[in-house]
Amino acid sequence: FLDDPCSAEAASSLALATAKERGLRQIEGLALPVLGWAQARQGREGLGRIRDGIAKLNEIGNRVSIPLFLTLRAEAEALDGAIANALASYEEALMFNAKELVYRPQTLIVRGELRCKLGQTESAEKDFREAIALARETGARGFELRATTGLARLIHGRGDTSAARNMLAPLYAWFTEGIDTVDLKGAKVLLGELA
To answer: What span, in angstroms and rounded, lies between the C-alpha atoms of 71 and 94?
Structure first.
């Protein structure tokens, strides 16, 4: 969630090695998708690892975190140019274990970002707004900031700089630590553009 594929690759590689050494199938299943996502984000093949991890978790009956890993698969598919597959994977992530809400805002945010790139701004706005509402409901301020930044960028692109600034500035000001994170740096840059 820190958008740091290098660190994610290092941590998941270590977890995977330990899991294989000790025969921990669940940890192996949890580490593989993160490793695959990190590799895909760095321009390498990672989609196979994500799929393998999801399959391993399904084999042992683990349904927890599958929506997150389906979201990671969608991101890797989009990076690979398989846009239709990515959109289908986002839908699958939102439908799979629908009561698991913890990762739902992230799924909506990255789908909204993809929809923005595809010029589907109305659908993207809906995704961002739904992510913001859910993040507020669950107290997930980090997801709220990420979704609000995406929505503010979209609204700014339409020419409504004032509305974009008014929605992002108070949320950004709420944060008193973690200022060096990718999300807060991005929000700060956008606020500078909106000034």
So the answer is: 9
Residue type for position 49: R
pLDDT tens, residue by residue, 149-187: 999 999 999 999 999 999 999 999 999 988 889 999 999
The answer to whether 114 and 86 are in contact (CB under 8 A) is yes
Measured distance CA(23)–CA(36) in Å, rounded? 20
CA 83 – CA 142 distance, rounded (Å)? 26
Q: Amino acid letter at 47?
A: L
Reference 30, options 3, 7, 63; nearest CA is: 63
Extract the tokens encoding 74: 């969608």
Please give the Cα distance from 106 to 90 (Å, whole number).
Answer: 10
Residues 163, 84: Cα–Cα separation, whole Å? 32
Could you tell me the two tokens for 104? 């739902």
